[in-house]
Design a protein that fits this description.
Elements (H helix, E strand, L loop, with lengths): L3 E6 L5 H9 L6 E7 L3 E3 L4 H4 L10 E3 L9 E5 L2 E4 L3 E9 L10 E6 L2 E4 L3 E2 L12 H17 L3 E4 L3 H14 L6 E4 L12 H11 L3 E4 L17 E4 L5 E4 L1 E4 L4 E2 L2 H4 L28 E3 L12 H21 L16 E5 L3 E8 L2 E7 L1 H9 L7 H7 L5
Parallel strand pairs: 1-2, 1-9, 2-5, 9-18, 11-12, 11-16, 12-13
Antiparallel strand pairs: 3-4, 6-7, 7-8, 10-17, 14-15, 19-20, 20-21
Helix pairs in contact: 1-7
Bound molecules: flavin-adenine dinucleotide.
Flavin-adenine dinucleotide binds next to strand 2, helix 4 and helix 7.
Length: 396
């Protein structure tokens, strides 16, 4: 008898712990079908640094071919366009013999018993690569940024969240006074959802590196975008300020990839585009108890990190297994517990800004300890890429 499917939409930080959590525990009646349009896992934590410094891009794109044994399931390179109550519709046709709903020819429909939606969010390049069909085109995109940044004399970073802060620090540290680097951030404070103390620490780190910073004003993007062709042009902000720049690097935050779920039901997604979720990681609409959401696509609160996604993934795995063993509406499901905000910003090769909570107090410190250990161990950027190579059972 054909195996039934647990479909995982997306194959990034939130999906990998789901896949690894399910693959050894699913009964043999079921297998995992992972769908993602990317050819490789993108270790995006390091993209800000890799958009500045060359020579380590190969390690940031990790193949999926060993993550599942054939009897455990398969990874399909495709996008999901539509989520329906018991099937998903892909953006392309694939060999149908792999699925229970057809036995020859091609299909773009995959049936599922349970769905784990982990399609995350879109960011502008270089935070996420816009070319991802092959590893070489993703690497080429990063290298284009390295060239543009190397040539620019007056780069301007728009947005100072995780990606903007790290990128600005990387540029300033590598090029120092040879570039006049500006950061414009739309809010009055940096990282306000991580507590009151982060803003001043991040500001000081960038200030010491010589970065000119404007907060509480928005860059006005012209129709058709900025030239970014090496010429000098004027960038205007919402306060009327005019800044001379020759390269604008957008780091303007995330846009959730949730439109495929709106086919299932319009009320699944909130005004900001995030999926309304229960503490069980299920969607809030009770008609779809077999649809789970993990990671940045879900409205789990303002802290969107891979660390939080791992907690959501553990709950989704437990509940999917329970549902498959006991049926959709039986027994008590596991719940996600909220934790205090934590973040580790890698601001250049040497400085980390670490934010955590101790005895109820929000603490933010800039430390060079992490940089020192990385230097000792010869690690570049975020040391986490190695963990992903291991999690995907991938080999260089
Ligand atoms: C610069 C930077 C540094 C960071 N550093 C850290 C850190 O040190 N620690 C930490 O915990 N967090 C960090 N984060 C946050 C972390 O990267 C995110 O929380 C995490 O990527 C969320 O994972 P995700 O799988 O939900 O989404 P994503 O990583 O956005 O992945 C979504 C996946 O879904 C796929 N997809 C999209 N649409 C579809 C579709 N229609 N069909 C199929 N597949 C689809 C995409 O191709 C992608 O592979 C950082 C973020 C940034 C920007």
């Amino acid at each position: 008898m054909a195996q039934r499917n647990v479909v995982v939409v997306g194959a990034s930080f939130a999906a990998i712990p789901v896949i690894n959590g399910l693959k050894r525990k699913l009964p043999s009646t079921h297998r995992i079908i992972v769908v993602d349009p990317k050819s490789h896992f993108h270790f995006a934590f390091a993209f800000p640094a890799a958009a500045v410094e060359s020579g380590w891009e190969e390690t940031l794109f990790i193949p999926y071919n060993n993550v599942l044994l054939p009897e455990q399931g398969l990874v399909i390179q495709a996008g999901v366009n539509e989520v329906h109550p018991n099937s998903v519709v892909l953006d392309r046709h694939i060999d149908a013999s792999q699925f229970a709903n057809a036995d020859s020819g091609t299909t773009n429909v995959i049936p599922y018993d349970c769905l784990v939606y982990a399609a995350g969010a879109w960011h502008p390049s270089p935070t996420t690569m816009q070319h991802f069909s092959t590893k070489s085109e993703s690497i080429a995109e990063l290298q284009t940024w390295q060239d543009r940044i190397a040539r620019a004399k007056k780069p301007l970073v728009v947005g100072c969240g995780g990606s903007g802060a790290e990128l600005a620090a990387d540029i300033a540290e590598m090029y120092g006074a040879t570039k006049h680097l500006t950061v414009v951030h739309s809010r009055e404070k940096y990282f306000d959802s991580f507590g009151p103390n982060v803003d001043a620490v991040v500001y000081q780190v960038l200030d010491k590196l010589g970065v000119v910073q404007f907060r509480g004003e928005r860059v006005v993007f012209p129709k058709g975008g900025f030239p970014n062709d090496g010429s000098t042009f004027e960038v205007e902000t919402s306060t009327g300020r005019k800044i001379k720049a020759d390269l604008v690097i957008p780091c303007t935050g995330l846009v959730p990839n949730t439109s495929p779920l709106t086919i299932l039901s319009a009320n699944l997604v909130n005004e900001q585009g995030f999926v309304n979720v229960l503490p069980t990681a299920q969607v809030t609409n009770p008609h779809f108890p077999n649809v789970f959401v993990v990671g940045d696509a879900g409205d789990f609160g303002p802290i969107k990190t891979a660390k939080e996604a791992r907690k959501q993934a553990a709950v989704a795995v437990a509940n999917v297994l329970k549902m498959i063993r006991e049926g959709p509406l039986h027994g008590e499901l596991s719940h996600i517990t909220r934790s205090a905000p934590r973040i580790n910003l890698i601001m250049g090769k040497w400085t980390n800004v670490v934010v955590f909570t101790l005895w109820g107090c929000n603490i933010a410190i800039a430390t060079r300890l992490g940089g020192f250990f990385k230097w000792l161990m010869g690690v570049r950027g975020s040391p986490g890429a190695k963990k992903i190579w291991r999690a995907l059972s991938a080999k260089m």
